[in-house]
Amino acid sequence: MQIWNVKNILEWAIDYFNRKDIPQPRLSAELLLSSVLDLDRINLYLNYNRILNKQELATYKKYILKRLEHTPIQYILNEAYFRKIKLYVDKEVLIPRPETELIVEKAFQILKDSLSKDKINILEIGTGSGAITISLAYEISNELKLPDELWEIVSTDNNPGALAIAENNARNILGNEKFNNIKFIECDIVPQESSDFFKQYINKINLVISNPPYISEKDYENLSREVKEYEPKNALLGGKTGLEVYEKILYKIKPYLCTGFCHILFEIDSAQSAPLKKLSEDIISPAEIKIDKDYNQRERIMTIKV
């Protein structure tokens, strides 16, 4: 009779995923087993001889069957790690990417270099799981240690399901006290100009952050099965050219930009950097535009200093 200890079950799962052409077979097998056994990946190898019980084997089998359907690991486990936080995720929201962490890093540096006694108003457009907003709020509180009265984040999304996930993530990660520094609003980019939002924030937003849908129709068809079949299309597809949502954002946020101190941060596709730079210069003027590269030396973060 086969004894299913950690070593045997891992070797079997890795081989099985390899034969079924599952991407990153070792990582998939390790992450799923780590969750089942509540161990980190390093400790899997320190517990090689641990024998799985019936419930653990059943759960691991269930996860493996889902992975065989190319379900992303983050959706199987309903969790994703982003900078210093762990988020709940499901098919309502995009899985946070490591490259997106760079936009938080950039935002944090801007805030750190610009500390004053004036309140800082931050607007995130298309919050999804809340990864950017919550991570930034966490680091403002724990590293910059800004008093609550000196910062606020407004996070918008047009998907009520995503917004509910973001709110729950924020409350679970930040606690009720810091949660109150964030306003979650269901709308397309920003509320209508006739709303109280317009009156409250006109000329008062210091930092706009967005990782909007920017994949063109042509590129969308070439996405991997894991992305195209499982992740929300409305969070990925940006239109025929991929620039359409950026253009809408730039026009809609213009009345809210603080003339004294304001930056706009976009995550971008490197293929779009030149046309997006021109589009931004045409709509937001005068502006100083800088583009930073990601870990793979691809242009990824656009900063527009107003």
Description:
The protein folds into two domains: 64 residues; 214 residues, Rossmann fold (3-Layer(aba) Sandwich), CATH 3.40.50.150. 45% of the residues lie in helices and 17% in strands. It is built from 13 helices and eleven strands. The strands form three sheets. It has a seven-stranded mixed sheet, with helices on both faces. Helix 2 runs antiparallel to helix 4, helix 6 packs parallel to helix 7 and helix 7 runs parallel beside helix 8. The longest helix has 20 residues. The termini are far apart. The mean pLDDT is 94.
Characteristics of this structure?
306 residues; alpha/beta; Rossmann fold; 2 domains; seven-stranded mixed beta sheet; two-stranded antiparallel sheet; globular
